[in-house]
Write a structure and sequence with these properties.
single chain, 6-stranded antiparallel barrel, 27% helix
């Protein structure tokens, strides 16, 4: 009788008919789970790295079954992975991959972002590929999932490992302390290196040169019209007046605009002056009035520019900042200067529900950048609690996905439709994530992965306010 060489193998065996996917069966003691990495040892000595995608078992029967995909052939020394090919096999022993085998996923382990550890293997570091942030990224997770903290981990790593400048639209003040080391990390080399980066924090209440301001006269015509809620057809005469007085307004102090319009003596100019007064535009703190404009600061390309949008009295002022920056970046797109545009709470700017002229102008520019900006080096990273509140024309252009805890079936179904490259069992796991756990998939990962996020090097600005407790007696 012929002796089966798998008799002494682990309890789980696998088969692959195409060298791309595999099916396995074994005992529950194998403890494989979706997202976990395994090594497949064929009878001919070939060793391949695989990733489990689906797992099923029968209660009482003790049987474990599942499937996965083959990621490549591991070299004899275990340090390299040929991801261009997989080898079919009739039978292979399956075991959990060790750290060195998982590291073989990366051609240059020194040129990656270390963001935490794998959920399935807590002792194995999880990495993102920094050079693949040249695609749009969608980052989502419900309130309390640790979304903003985790985003900070990745942004810190990008600042440490790349020269990719970023501008961060920060509506809740979560990143305004990006220059300050956390107590647990302040004596580390990484924190010292981060402190040397040129990080600008722009806030409405800050004095020059850190004040967050916009120069009205530098806005394109359509943006000026959006600020004044002017429609080129419905408000034909006022719109025409705006066209003809652009140069005049540029030579005037903001407080003189109304009197200058009235002095023109036309009904359209008087109507435009009344509009300016009724909207309270002259009282907005967003106008430069001698301060350096945010567009000029961003154009110098600091390593990071944080725009504290939550400090304005009028919510439209934050929209003016977003419109000014996005319009200016688009106008200069032919310069092809790489920039990561990070938009926290992106539903504030990219929702299809908002229909005010300012909201529409910002959203339309985001749609354009999402569709065409990648080739010019304008790359979006959109973070939100509710995927369904992001315009589909923006969301559908994202090639990278970061997903933290999400229990909404509607949102998970939409994510499954748009990001079809994510294994369904891994996507479903998001509803059971604990705080700080995340799923990453797309171009910026070597393979889809579920991760426990690592710690921050800098302080988080918008931490939750705690309930005051009475001292125990």
């Amino acid at each position: 009788m012929t002796t089966n060489t798998l008799d002494s193998a682990p309890e789980t065996t696998a088969v692959s008919l195409d060298g791309r996917s595999f099916q396995f069966a074994g005992s529950l003691r194998s403890a494989f789970q979706p997202g976990g990495f395994v090594t497949l040892h064929s009878e001919d000595g070939t060793r391949q790295l695989g990733q489990v995608e689906e797992v099923a078992f029968s209660i009482g029967g003790g049987d474990l079954q599942g499937s996965g995909r083959i990621l490549g052939v591991v070299s004899d020394d275990g340090e390299k992975l040929d991801q261009r090919r997989g080898v079919p096999f009739g039978a292979a022993r399956v075991r959990v991959a060790d750290a060195a085998e998982v590291e073989a996923l990366y051609d240059d382990p020194g040129a990656v972002l270390e963001i935490g550890s794998y959920l399935a293997s807590a002792d194995v570091a999880a990495h993102l590929l920094p050079h693949r942030f040249n695609r749009h990224t969608f980052w989502c997770g419900q309130s309390g999932s640790g979304k903003t903290y985790a985003l900070g981990v990745v942004l810190e790593q990008l600042l440490l490992r790349t020269n990719l400048p970023m501008v961060i639209f920060d509506p809740n003040g979560d990143f305004v302390r990006l220059r300050e080391s956390s107590p647990s990390a302040e004596d580390t080399d990484a924190a010292r290196a981060l402190a040397e980066r040129n990080i600008r924090i722009l806030r409405p209440s800050s004095p020059d040169p850190d004040s967050l301001r916009v120069r009205f006269v530098s806005l394109p015509l359509h943006a000026k019209a959006a600020v004044m809620h002017l429609d080129p057809l419905d408000d034909r005469e006022e719109y025409s007046e705006l066209i003809h007085i652009e140069e005049t307004m540029g030579a005037l102090d903001g407080k003189d605009v109304v009197s200058a319009l009235i002095a023109r003596g036309t009904s359209s100019a008087a109507a435009l002056a009344a509009r300016v007064e009724n909207l309270g535009l002259l009282d907005w703190n967003v106008w430069a009035r001698g301060f350096e404009a945010v567009t000029d600061i961003v154009d110098t390309r600091p390593d990071a520019t944080v725009l504290d949008l939550g400090g304005f009295d009028n919510p439209d002022e934050s929209l003016v900042v977003a419109m000014a920056v996005l319009d200016d970046l688009w106008a200069r797109r032919e310069q092809r200067r790489p920039l990561l545009i990070v938009i926290d709470e992106a539903h504030n700017l990219g929702s299809p529900e908002h229909q005010s002229p300012l909201h529409v102008a910002v959203r339309e520019r985001l749609i354009q950048i999402a569709a065409e900006g990648r080739k010019f080096g304008l790359w979006l990273l959109l973070s939100t609690q509710r995927p369904s509140r992001i315009h589909p024309s923006i969301m559908s252009q994202c090639d990278n996905l970061a997903l933290m805890k999400m229990t909404s079936p509607i949102d998970l179904d939409e994510l499954a439709t748009i990001f079809g490259f994510v294994p369904p069992a891994m996507l479903a796991r998001a509803s059971r994530f604990a705080q700080g756990e995340a799923l990453f998939a797309g171009g910026f990962t070597a393979a889809p992965m579920m991760v426990k996020m690592g710690g921050r090097l800098t302080l988080e600005g918008g931490v939750d306010v705690r309930v005051p407790m009475r001292p125990s007696s």
